[in-house]
Write the structure tokens for this entry.
Amino acid sequence: MLEHQQITDLIRPWLQEDIGRGDVTTRAVVDPELAGRARIEARESFVVAGLSVAAACFEEVGEGSLKWLPEVADGEAVEPHAVLARLDGPVASILTGERVALNLLQRLSAVATLTSRFVEAVAGTGAGILDTRKTTPGLRLLEKYAVRVGGGSNHRFGLDDGILIKDNHLAVAGGVALAVALARNGAPHGLRIEVEVTTLDGVTEALGAGADAILLDNMTPEMVAEAVKTAGGHALLEASGGMNLGNVRAYAETGVDLISVGALTHSAPAVDISLEVETE
Amino acid sequence: MLEHQQITDLIRPWLQEDIGRGDVTTRAVVDPELAGRARIEARESFVVAGLSVAAACFEEVGEGSLKWLPEVADGEAVEPHAVLARLDGPVASILTGERVALNLLQRLSAVATLTSRFVEAVAGTGAGILDTRKTTPGLRLLEKYAVRVGGGSNHRFGLDDGILIKDNHLAVAGGVALAVALARNGAPHGLRIEVEVTTLDGVTEALGAGADAILLDNMTPEMVAEAVKTAGGHALLEASGGMNLGNVRAYAETGVDLISVGALTHSAPAVDISLEVETE
Amino acid sequence: MLEHQQITDLIRPWLQEDIGRGDVTTRAVVDPELAGRARIEARESFVVAGLSVAAACFEEVGEGSLKWLPEVADGEAVEPHAVLARLDGPVASILTGERVALNLLQRLSAVATLTSRFVEAVAGTGAGILDTRKTTPGLRLLEKYAVRVGGGSNHRFGLDDGILIKDNHLAVAGGVALAVALARNGAPHGLRIEVEVTTLDGVTEALGAGADAILLDNMTPEMVAEAVKTAGGHALLEASGGMNLGNVRAYAETGVDLISVGALTHSAPAVDISLEVETE
Amino acid sequence: MLEHQQITDLIRPWLQEDIGRGDVTTRAVVDPELAGRARIEARESFVVAGLSVAAACFEEVGEGSLKWLPEVADGEAVEPHAVLARLDGPVASILTGERVALNLLQRLSAVATLTSRFVEAVAGTGAGILDTRKTTPGLRLLEKYAVRVGGGSNHRFGLDDGILIKDNHLAVAGGVALAVALARNGAPHGLRIEVEVTTLDGVTEALGAGADAILLDNMTPEMVAEAVKTAGGHALLEASGGMNLGNVRAYAETGVDLISVGALTHSAPAVDISLEVETE
Amino acid sequence: MLEHQQITDLIRPWLQEDIGRGDVTTRAVVDPELAGRARIEARESFVVAGLSVAAACFEEVGEGSLKWLPEVADGEAVEPHAVLARLDGPVASILTGERVALNLLQRLSAVATLTSRFVEAVAGTGAGILDTRKTTPGLRLLEKYAVRVGGGSNHRFGLDDGILIKDNHLAVAGGVALAVALARNGAPHGLRIEVEVTTLDGVTEALGAGADAILLDNMTPEMVAEAVKTAGGHALLEASGGMNLGNVRAYAETGVDLISVGALTHSAPAVDISLEVETE
Amino acid sequence: MLEHQQITDLIRPWLQEDIGRGDVTTRAVVDPELAGRARIEARESFVVAGLSVAAACFEEVGEGSLKWLPEVADGEAVEPHAVLARLDGPVASILTGERVALNLLQRLSAVATLTSRFVEAVAGTGAGILDTRKTTPGLRLLEKYAVRVGGGSNHRFGLDDGILIKDNHLAVAGGVALAVALARNGAPHGLRIEVEVTTLDGVTEALGAGADAILLDNMTPEMVAEAVKTAGGHALLEASGGMNLGNVRAYAETGVDLISVGALTHSAPAVDISLEVETE
């Protein structure tokens, strides 16, 4: 779940970005006292995510004067013409808040929808679908929430809530064993230590160094299967690199614990949603 | 061009989002004094946009200690393995800044690349490719810049730098003529007045009302051609709705002035770019 | 109308500027529980503007505990001793909020009052009275609101919601025709293009270049009349420079569309308003 | 003196207010690489104040690329056509920063000029000219600086750096003696205690209560002269209310220590200053 | 009293510091809908301070959904096991807000407790116990409030609400007389002028210069007694330096007005307070 | 190591808190052009921490004009009269920055000093000394840095970079096994799962649930020794509750991995440090 205050803090600068000094069109042509209704409607099939974020946009713009009446919940799959929510109150506020609310709803639903496809693709294998830090700058909290809505789970939220020793670190750190030891000593307790490897020797080395988790980068499913055998449950294994809906099941069937997919957040095309003001 | 200060103000919270209380991995395993080099490299073909934004990320993280050496310029088309830029300085700062810099470069290049395809598709027709307000919350300035890099031009930056009377406004405003008159009286001088219409009658009505520009929403190319004739140069015409690389030329050949495409900013899949630390 | 949230965001730092670490006098000598009433009273004749801004100051300081009871509305002309509003609630909050509230009310009413004099002076001519960007730093939104309250209308709110090519631009831009062409290509659609000229030749040149509006700078009424003839309705004409209550009607009678007056916002002397705590 | 950092912190939101998403005119019509010169010039006689504030505006906008060459110093009296400062560097930055810089320079010079007239009017009497808290919201630090530049001195900067028990406090506080005692006990040491009185009895009461300073509100010069005698140097005396250039000397000659004048900051009409870009 | 808004503004970044991107433990293991009760309990004897600050933490975290039921008031002395307050509402919010609330309550109560010991130690002498600027960065307003709760009074809140000419100033300012004269001319009216001296000659010099208050630094009680005689009530006297519970009464009995104690805020060890969630 | 930018962001509001509208004393009595030197000097024995934080205070206040010349490094033990650093530049800036710089240096050195005593007390046992979240609001990053300077290591920095299921969580979460399972599923990968227990049965339960670490709360050294045996290296063990310099070695000798001590950050009394301006 997202905290209401976190959402509000996030959306304020975004509303400011769109509204600037004020919605000059609406101010000029719509009576500020005019009350009305509007509906937010799906124009294709998708998994909904971000309703409370959209609601918060209208709450902010309307300063509490708009009623938000959701008709579905985050995580539900909807079909074209499904009404996601209705709004009731000053039409001017509905019009002013529309674009930012829809931009967010379209993007977060896109992330949830794409995630849910990956999750379905690996159904029954025991592998989890994981996001990455390849998120939209500023939207990480929301996009990672959308991943969870779509059935995925979350990797690190930032550089401070997990240790991941990557290839570029290893290039300068003097080897897996030393890097893991340094991380164990210097980093805050509470964080797992994960190491990225590209070979099966790397897996053995990481296990020997006591890594809590191993990221298997750009391996074939066969190599991943081998890594699973080697690890024997002594470390969490995460497969990563070049995952798509065509190949993800092959990876999942290797017995790997987690599969991380950058595309969930960096390449999900926006779903189509519209807002219609209703007149008698 | 983007102003340096605007970029810096934008990226600070994004770096904060990723770095949080600090890059615990790099702090633990990389000597803060260690200097080195890295290169940023294309892994597919695309039009580059956002180099100064990526540079600013490393400038911020390195507090000025990193040298940024661009090898291409925004707007250039690159092939796989092309080096976009090199970095020289503290490796720790390179590693800490990498993700946010790449996330932005991948997204902005994606927008420029998709825009350039639409621009090519209408080449020679005289029609301009226009963005919309369907941008990523928080990234509007950057994404609209990427549209220009890709050869497109910009519609409104927000609700305050242009008047666009849309269908939802008209539903409550009492007709095109009244709405245009209200906008002319109440809004700041300096803004054009554009009205959205969906029929040819609407075009005639908007012209009669003295609209400066008319948005032709979801019309067929044939209807747009008719609208062009009707307008006879007395208002700027913009076609919008359902544009894609397959149909955009047909619209462009109608003689319409502008074609706006939401997908430029809401659905361009990230291009693939990597950063490699170089060791001897 | 001003949005409540915009007002609140504006006044917070101003209250902070005055209150600092706290109103030490009131804390020391007034019982925080003591409830009472006060009235805000005109001490000269003027047009009221800014009541909701003053109300917001007391709302902020009183954190909602003060009742604000307006007795007049923005735009009304009042006479000495007229009560503008009454306050009911904790006296301590009334005293702490008084100065900032009055400073704003005195200044905004001054702007509205001066504007209304210019508007009266041109009554019946069809010319509109326009403000400029010569506003008090930080108060632009409020002062431009006060201009509207006084019957005037608004020019640009900033450098981004209108194109105005001024003498200094022309000095380096290579002539009117080129400057207008550059603006048409490079600037966001949605903005009108206005050019400043000082001669009748300039008017002709600007019309030829396709300018949407022309600022006639420091011309005599005779020259303005000539410009009106030359333009023949093909561009909006704005007269500017050295306007005062003595000469403004002569300009208005030329048939010019708009007359801009910097003094509306930079030189209106504060009107006199007091706050009186009422004791039985 | 004003601290450079304080100025920078103040002007940033004001530049943001004017520039918004960017100076679209200058971006479209002026080559960002074009270097040039400009001069800031007086168009009437006045006392200069705020040069470092104007300089800071150009420093911010130009991000350090503009050279600022002052030709006079704050506090100097200048005549029409005097050059206050020259600018050398990117013309685009000069044009973008011009308005905010001039708005501030015109206002602060106005405050200094009006103050200097009051100071001259009381020359030789020993009375000091004092400002009030009737300043422009957001500009207090600058306007109080301009008062000092004009030869005046400063009263409180806010509600927390001085105790001033006014009529409205006394109306609810139970009398002068009690109020002074409460202030002495409850307020931070380090602050003087000043009490506002309107009668000679009030002066006696305030002296008896041990007030450090007494504000003589709306008294005639004769009453003030009497108050000076009564006080006999045991408290600082400040005359206030209805001061103008016509009557201030009469007050000053009573022997009163300080005369406070709200008009210094709330009603000084802007002086006329222009910026001219210089071309060969 | 502390203003509610001031408290809220202070605690927000502190909650942010602790909560970061969210309380992952509570989110994972506690049902967000689960309501419950908790009590905040003393685990040693102390004087309570900061209840409204702790309440504000829970108000913020719970966004208004938690009921705060205080059982004691600031300033009361409590014994081990005393319940300070009860909380009623979502258990998740109680758990998330607990640490920051307790950290503040433990520290502020510590300051009040230590202050109250000094106040008791000087009881009946007429000397007041004063704090210093040796407070915790960011907590000055709260710690100075806690000093008042403990029966002490406040010295300056910052460098701008009182003039204190210290040894380091005198080292470069050319003597007490000159420094006092400069302060009297240049500083805002409303501020007392205090000078630090270390000898009895210094006292005489400060009196001669017209100082309003004199800080007697690191003097023995005998010297302070002598200073009291010398001053004869013509300036406020403050003893400072090396004060502890063992020697403070000796100083207080000299007749000095004020005794300032840095340890009140820089060295009071946290009192022990716990929060217990109550289950049936 | 602390990042320079993080320090700067932290200290700005603290300097603002102290300096407010400006250092009125220094402005009035010290020539702003006067250059000089000062030394920062220990007045008792302690371990130094926070030199770069103090340096940053002077850098901010002096806007780069002060030279900071450290004579020792963080982590060094110093004796009374040791010079920690010298300052060279405008005396006014030295005086204005002094208090905040010293307040921080005194507090951080206190934390490092107390930590080093605990570290020495357990020397040779293999147990690490750990901090807690009982830090000063706003100073967590700095105080945790000081703990590392003193030889300790860091527990969580906030509620988001580690999972710690405490007694209050368990009271509502339905037992250790369920809570650990919920945490494993719902929380971001990358975080260890730690559970607080108060009995040896709790240790067994936590091990069975697969906890990565176990917090042994308020156990005797004998119980801790038993827990160490039970765990047999399958989970990290942390002893906590009531630790002091008298009993900590007994705990350390049990073989426990970590000992956490709240007093490190909540009850270290400030060390004594002074700043002396040097005159010839």
Notes: The longest strand of chain E covers residues 35-42. The two ends of chain E are 37 Å apart (CA to CA). Chain E has two domains: 4-118+268-278, 124-266. Residues 4-118+268-278 of chain E form a domain with the Aldehyde Oxidoreductase; domain 3 fold (CATH 3.90.1170.20).
